[in-house]
Structures are given as structure tokens and as C-alpha cells.
Amino acid sequence: MTSAELDNLARVGKLKREPPTDDEIAGLLRSAEERLTDAGRADLSYSSRFDLAYNAAHALALVALRRAGYRSENRYLVFQTLPHTVGMEAAKWRVLAKAHERRNLVEYEGYLERDDRLLAELIAIAGELHRSVATSRSQSAPGRLSVCWARTV
Length: 153
Known about the structure:
Layout lengths: L3 H8 L4 E2 L4 H18 L6 H22 L2 E2 L3 H6 L1 H4 L4 H20 L6 H18 L20
Antiparallel strand pairs: 1-2
Helix pairs in contact: 2-3, 2-7, 3-6, 3-7, 6-7
């Protein structure tokens, strides 16, 4: 999917035009699936589950952006383009934005506030995003969800 918004971001240097490779997409999907599966494991710590869910969502958002023919070095911008790459509604994109802010607090300040609702929403949205972007190499239409993620918090 292309859009004027993505083209504008490329024109001002926020995105780079670059065709994806099959290996890149497959690797991102594999990483996201493993992380999202593990994020659903209630036996892991909250911080581990949050990190896994956040990074799965980022990898899936990156798949959408790469399939559109763009690359970004800005993690937030990868999420911000989701309305233009997969038609994500604003309320869901805002959850990912909030998760990104929380991730930055952990990474740069060492602070993580436990928010079970945010984690559950993050896992659910990442699962929806997976269904939106997952395809086999031979298909151009979205594929079936190959793994199931628990919403256990």
C-alpha cells in the first residue's frame, strides 16, 4: 500500500524508499511470532512479557512498513505509519504509542510501571497486527494466524 503521507515522509527524509526482501520479511515475522508467543506466558516476569510484546508489535509494524517499500530508523515512526500501511484505527495506534513511551522509560530511565491492562492490550493488538501482515511467501493476501497468543496477564 502506498499513500501520500508515506511519500511525504520519504520526501522530507523521515522514511527511506527501499524494497523489502523475502528473507527480511520472513525473519521479522519469525521473530515477532516467537516473541508474541512468549509474551503470553504467565510464568514470565511482567517486564519480560512487556519487552517481548512491545518488540513483537514493533517487528510486525516494521513488516507492514517494509512491505509498503519504506524503511525508518525511528521506532516511533514505524508505529505512527500503521494507519497508512494496514489501516490501523487511531485508538489502537495510541496503545502502541503509550507502550513505546513506557518502553523508553525502561530503556533510558530504568523505570517500569506495571500496567496489566496495557500489556493485555499490547498483546491483543500485536496479535491483530500479525493477522494483518502474516503471509506465506507464495501468497499476497494475509495468511492465517499460525500461533495463538494467550491474553493471560
